[in-house]
Amino acid sequence: MPGDYTFWVPAHEAGHAVVAIASKNIPEYVRIFPGQNRGGVAMLADNRTNDNDWEAKIAAAGLAAEMMVQDAERPTLPEKEFYLAALNRALSDREYFARHVDFAAIKMDPNDLPALTELFFKFAWRDTRPVILANMPMFTAFRTALTGYPFVGIASIRKIVRGETPTGQDLERDRQQERCVDAKIPYVEPPDSFGSKMLDRIKGLLRRS
């Protein structure tokens, strides 16, 4: 169903995460809020360098991901019903997208909401979708992880970015980070052991050889 948040939101937030990473902005964590009519977040640093083109792509990434999934996995859904549901999940994204559009350059009235919505959908499909398609293994990993558990922390994110599967230790660190986020206290990553660091370096060298 177009309104099934448990199906669409993991893809939506996976899209945001992947495009943010492609723009060299690693999320601190990615999470969804379980329950009907609940969304999610890919938490990015506030002090990142703003590039309007990339920020617009990040804003449109959740919508782009949902459109991709609909096209590939739910092609028989009533189109109008799907687009309305997808837009409802991306209202705050549309607002953020509008802050990075040069309306004067494209001769558009920023208060023309129907025109903005059309531009948002077109930009998601034309400009943002290719970024996700170029990083499909990462997109699938984030989507799968969020479908299994609604919080992906920095330990697992680093492994996903490297194309590796998060370990049990990574998942435990994710849970520790989640508890800190929920308690609104800073999360301090535990130091890796020397052996673990050396193993990661060796793996990196082997991948490059």
Explain what this protein looks like in three dimensions.
The structure is a single chain. With 209 residues, the chain is mainly alpha-helical. The protein has a single domain, classed as Methane Monooxygenase Hydroxylase, Chain G, domain 1, CATH 1.20.58. The protein contains 10 helices and 3 strands, in the order αββααααααβααα. β1 and β2 form a beta hairpin. α2 runs antiparallel to α4. The chain is globular, with a radius of gyration of 18 Å. The model has no long low-confidence stretch (mean pLDDT 90).
Labels describing this entry:
65% helix, three-stranded antiparallel sheet, mainly alpha, 209 residues, 3 strands, Methane Monooxygenase Hydroxylase, Chain G, domain 1, globular
Overall pLDDT, averaged?
90
Overall body shape: globular
Mind telling me the C-alpha Rg? 18 Å
| CATH fold name | Methane Monooxygenase Hydroxylase, Chain G, domain 1
> Distance N terminus to C terminus?
46 Å
Placed side by side, the strands forming the largest sheet appear as 2-1-3
Question: What share of the residues does DSSP label as strand, in percent?
Answer: 5-15%
CATH architecture: Up-down Bundle
Determine the structural class based on helices, strands and strand pairing. Answer: mainly alpha
Quaternary state, please? single chain
Poorly predicted regions are: none
Whole-number count of domains: 1
Series of H and E elements: HEEHHHHHHEHHH
